[in-house]
Automatic annotation (TrEMBL):
CDD domains: YdcF-like (cd06259). Residues 39-169 form the DUF218 domain. This is Uncharacterized SAM-binding protein YcdF (DUF218 family). InterPro entries: Cell_Envelope_Assoc, DUF218.
Amino acid sequence: MRRILFILVTFAVIFTGGFGFFAVHVSGMSTPANPDKADAIIVLTGGQSRLDAALDLLKAGKGERLLISGVHPSATRHQLQLATGSDKSLFNRVDIDRAALDTIGNAEESAKWVVSHDYERVILVTNNYHMPRSLLEMGRLLRNASLEPYPVVNSKLDEGRWLTKPEAFRVLFTEYNKYLLALARGIVPVKPTADGVLVVQAQAAD
């Protein structure tokens, strides 16, 4: 019983310490003021602020093309253009992925897009709390391309502010657990296919 109790306490300490490190790391992220130019830009859907940030980067010439990954199948290109207030000339440089349903799917579809265009350097746009898991999943498939994180920060949570905001704490704790599951998925083999890349027998959901 003592041994079991020791194992449980040790696990709890490691888990709690890991969460604290994760929360401090994520809450300390900031949006780059002027990132270096890349070959392309990828944005993962999940909020208007992400799309706006990615389109601003495209408009500023930080990438040749933009992939919006995880768009709802019913959303049309015209609807997206109107929703983001973008002009048609800018949206001609936008590709839309409607197949991805979660972060794993984002990584798979993005990898196909990057490989098909032979891009070497890509700016990845998503929220700060979602960035570690997104980089982890994409990094497994894009080993020949560098990913430059562009975290979108909706609210300042540094200096321990996430501890005083229940909703922010919940989001961080949920994302931390998803990140741990993504780490556990590291034992799943990845292999190339004729259509791009495939995660073998990947059943985990976002």
